[in-house]
Specification:
This protein is mostly helical. Helices cover 55% and strands 5% of the residues. The protein has helices spanning 35-40, 84-92, 96-104, 111-133, 141-176, 187-196, 204-209, 215-238, 242-266, 273-280; strands at residues 29-30, 43-44, 51-52, 56-59, 64-66. Strands 1-4-5 form a 3-stranded antiparallel β-sheet, with no helix packed on it. A two-stranded antiparallel sheet has the order 2-3. Helix 3 (96-104) crosses helix 8.
Length: 282
């Protein structure tokens, strides 16, 4: 979730029309993008969510001046000067400014890889619960082969449940869309935001390795943290109020619970979160 200051910025920092020149002459300004690029690549003010054409202006001799937002009169993105660790801490604290910086003002293409890795962590936890409940001392290769396929099954179930969760959120926002017809929903950006904000699932592995005696409590806390991160990501991406965001999350959980119930009925989810939720109120 963290970014490396200016190194994480998207290409095209805008044209000189978007800022006040400040000190120095206009002809000394280094313009780093063309007009077409700035028109198609908009940034956002992390304070008021207004669009901006550039985040900072690069003068000669390494002198940089952060762009001031015309709407709120604050720096468009103060995080471009922050250390990645500080940005990560602010994202963990679910600050809207940090989420806007990451989602709108940086170029991060790791959401797909992060999603797969989070699903692998979740599948491992489910598989571990399954093996722990049906431990066998038989060294036969067939048993090991069956356990390997159990892991693949847990991964498939985790993927389907997460897909159902996202579908529930998208369906609610699509139905609710006529109420805000003047606003255009960017579902691609929303999906990216949800995938990135689910990074809390990476804590599933340490919760198993280091906190074995407190795994149920850790699972509850991780679940709450992931839902809180998703909540903030939806708010920041779509710029909607807390009520609609809460209803969207609730819709996603409802659809996911329906899929979980289906798996329980089909008896496919032994050792998965279906069993874990039921026994541990996760």
């Amino acid at each position: 979730m963290g970014t490396g200051g200016r190194s994480g910025l998207r290409p095209g920092k805008g044209n000189p029309e978007g800022v006040t020149a400040g000190k120095g002459k206009t002809d000394e300004v280094t313009v780093t993008s063309a007009t077409d690029a700035s028109a198609s690549c908009q940034y956002r003010c992390i304070e008021c969510n207004q669009e901006a054409k550039e985040l900072y202006r690069d003068y000669n001799h390494g002198v940089l001046k952060i762009t001031i937002c015309k709407s709120c009169q604050k720096p468009v993105d103060k995080y471009i000067e922050y250390d990645p660790v500080i940005i990560l801490i602010n994202a963990i604290l679910c600050k809207a400014q940090a989420y806007r910086h990451i989602l709108f003002n940086t170029k991060i293409n790791m959401h797909g890889k992060l999603c797969v890795f989070c699903l692998l962590c979740e599948a491992y936890l489910r598989w571990w619960q399954l093996q722990d409940s049906s431990r066998s001392i038989d060294p036969d290769d067939f048993i090991r082969y069956a356990k390997e396929w159990d892991f693949y099954r847990m991964f498939a179930i985790a993927s389907l449940e997460q897909t159902a969760y996202f579908i529930g959120i998208f369906a609610f926002l699509w139905v609710e869309r006529p109420i805000r017809a003047k606003e255009k929903l960017n579902f691609t950006l929303l999906l990216k935001a949800l995938l990135l904000s689910s990074y809390g699932k990476l804590l599933l592995i340490p919760s198993v390795i280091w906190e074995h005696d407190y795994t149920p409590l850790c699972l509850r806390l991780i679940k709450v943290f992931v839902l809180t991160s998703n909540f903030q990501a939806i708010r920041v991406t779509l710029n909607i109020n807390r009520k609609l965001t809460f209803l969207a999350i609730l819709s996603g959980l409802l659809v996911e619970s329906t899929v979980v119930y289906f798996f329980q009925r089909m008896e496919w989810a032994l050792g998965s979160d279906c069993a874990i939720y039921k026994s541990q109120d996760f």
